[in-house]
Specification:
mainly alpha; two-stranded antiparallel ribbon; flat
């Protein structure tokens, strides 16, 4: 399709997006809601909630520490489920943007 379009003098616009930081931006509540909407069983959702929720972090600069803050987004690094949960989160992106562009997901 792309080659034919180019041969006929058409134009193709491509946007490549680096999702390196995107794993850190996945909102936990929205991901859990998507899992429910896909029909994932409750026991598995509870297990995933335990992986994501009730985490906190703080920052250290030199010898000073910040206060602890709850982590409300992101999928933990090193998790075997990291990629799968991210793909589930962005899976409806092509449907959402279909009125404006033809979207393809590639990993």
């Amino acid at each position: 399709m792309w080659v034919k379009n180019l041969e006929e003098g058409g134009r193709i616009d491509v946007i490549y997006t680096d999702f390196a930081k995107a794993f850190d931006k996945v909102p936990h509540c929205r991901l859990i809601n998507k899992l429910h909407s896909y029909g994932v069983i409750d026991q598995l959702i509870l297990w995933i909630k335990d992986l994501l929720l009730h985490r906190s972090q703080r920052v250290k600069i030199n010898i000073e520490f910040s206060a602890w803050h709850s982590v409300i987004s992101g999928i933990p690094q090193g998790s075997v489920l990291r990629t799968l949960l991210f793909v589930i989160f962005i899976n409806d992106l092509p449907d959402t943007c279909s009125d404006f562009a033809e979207i393809f997901l590639f990993a």
